[in-house]
Write a structure and sequence with these properties.
Strand content: 15-25%
CATH topology: Aconitase, domain 4
Structural class: alpha/beta
Oligomer: single chain
Helix content: 25-40%
Largest sheet: 7 strands, mixed
Mean pLDDT: 92
Shape: globular
Strand order of the largest sheet: 4-3-2-1-5-6-7
Order of helices and strands: EHHEHEHEHEEEHHH
Length: 200
């Protein structure tokens, strides 16, 4: 998993609250066993019209959202089912961070397990970012996990809190399996003692 230290990128604004995981990645696309390949189906029902053509009114289909790597969105993002495919789809599409006033708990945890940084700011701060994004073509943010800050080039600056364990895991590019494997020498020594019949 790629470590997340800091990231600067274009912002895609999705000013919608209560975006659920079935909208992020609809159920008919959950047939793959790999973590890759889901980006093409991100927000599929919103991105496409009934005939399969792109929906020009959907926020991520607009020219300013192309190439965006930071998603700015509304409260309770990622609610609904616990499918891990949702952060897989967002990451595969190209997003590195999501900024919102709040996240569903399981979705938040799944993001952290997959190298996608969920950033919680206040409602007022997010609304200000929406305003700036609408007013500035190609609007960009820098999300700094080391300093726990979000800033732009026009004077906006906000701090955010994060559980230190999850923060360190993201900074080091580790999921729970990777974290366990750091203890491989101790695990191997334990297994040798057990195989030899020694007290463990």
């Amino acid at each position: 998993m790629q470590p997340f230290i800091w990231h600067s990128g274009r912002v895609a604004a999705l000013p919608r609250a209560n975006v659920d995981t079935d909208q992020i990645i609809p159920k008919q696309f959950l047939k793959r066993i790999e973590r890759t390949g889901f980006g093409a189906f991100l927000f599929y029902d919103w991105r496409h019209q009934s005939d399969g053509s792109p929906n020009p009114d959907f926020e991520l289909n607009r020219a300013d959202a192309q190439g965006a790597s930071i998603l700015l969105t509304g409260a309770n993002f990622g609610c609904g089912s616990s499918r891990e495919h949702a952060p897989w789809a967002l990451a595969d599409y190209g997003f590195r961070a999501i900024v919102a006033p709040s996240f569903a708990d399981i979705f938040y945890a799944n993001c952290c397990q997959n190298g996608l940084l969920p950033v919680t700011l206040t409602e007022a701060e997010v609304n200000e970012l929406f305003r700036r994004c609408a007013a500035t073509s190609g609007y960009q943010l820098t999300v700094d996990l080391e300093k726990q800050s979000v800033r732009d080039l026009h004077g906006f600056h906000a701090g955010f809190a994060m559980d230190e364990y999850r923060r360190q895991m993201l900074l080091r590019g580790l999921d729970e399996i990777g974290h366990t494997l750091l203890e491989e020498p101790l695990i191997a020594a334990f297994e040798r003692r057990r195989a030899d019949g020694a007290p463990v």
